[in-house]
Design brief:
418 residues; 3 domains; 63% helix; MetI-like fold; mainly alpha
Amino acid sequence: MRNQFRQLIRSGKFMTGFIIFNALVLLTIFYPIFNPGNPLAMIGFDSFIPPGTYFSLYDSVNPNIHVYTLRIPGADEARIQSLLPMDEREAMGEWLIREGVPKEQINIEDFTGLLELWFAHYNPDIRIDGMTIADRRFYQRLNAKVEGIFDIVDIHLYTYNNETEEYEFQAAISSEDYIRLRDVVNIVRLPLGTDNFGMDMMRKLVSAIGTSLLIGLIAGSIATVIGLILGLVAGYVGGIIDEIIMFFSNLFTVIPGFVLLILISYSIGQAGRSVTVIGIVIGLTAWVWTTRSVRSQVLSLRHRDHVSLSKLSGHSMPRIIIKDILPYIASYVVMAFILQISTAILAEAGLSMLGLGPRTTDVATLGLMMNWAMVYSAHLTGAWWAYYPVLLVIALISFSLNLMNTGLDQVFNPQLRN
């Protein structure tokens, strides 16, 4: 046993999977400590707020915050370039090409060169063949914006006086005024932005990882225990008991497991689908292949010399199974348990994608997050942070568990080890 443990430590596949899986588990434990709060709290009024650090604009113009004057080289140029996004630069390039400017002279990445070409060639009175009136007006508005981006003026702040019912001047903000971010009272960091409900995606994702792992643990435990018991009994006892167990095993094998899972989940109804119930349902429909695998292992062990010796010694069947057979298939059972967890997590994700997962108002799961992203068209609006991190986590969980299983198989299977 000690030698096998050393081999596990030296197994690159097992250790890689073990580190990835435990990193996700530790994330679910420690992240809520440093960022507490309800993972389903709606903190945003907008849908799909992009990832970033946000600070209160109201607090940033507080008159009590000290304002520093800084002359940062390139600040004005960066500010001007930010006012002209790439799609508008592409539109400028298209107009210049239609005007007759050679395409090789136009580089929309070169902000200064593009403006020089634009001011040299654009004329709002020019009528280009094939250009509609709407296009001409669009370019006229674009030209007005281009001409106005160089007008950097101070911003004046006014407050409304309820007594005089007039706006009173408070302060002027110039392009050289800066405040220290630490002086702003309310700052929120959203590493993964928000979803369609305005919920913190990172906080919800961490909670969903824990919930999905819990479902996998419940389902994996149930499926492994049922499969282990039935496989041990069928393989050791044989006869009519074996035929009955294998009949039901074959019956569940013929019926697609996921279809059966869908029917059961649908029959339970939305109100009854808690995390525990979903885990139990998945476990009760996933025991078949564990049963068949354990049975085949027991069939090869029940005629071994040490088992026959125990029979001749008058030991009871439970003792023989527990003492003489189970230790020899323990490693296989552990591997089956790991695979059952991975299968259960993927099954929950599939159920939730169909709207048959746990109650949406109680918890978040990885499958529910994918369902919400799909229903609210995150993939169409470009809100990648609503589904890519979830897909990555599902892939990491499945990948790490399968790596651990492969590493265990290489250590405990002599044929693979040699």
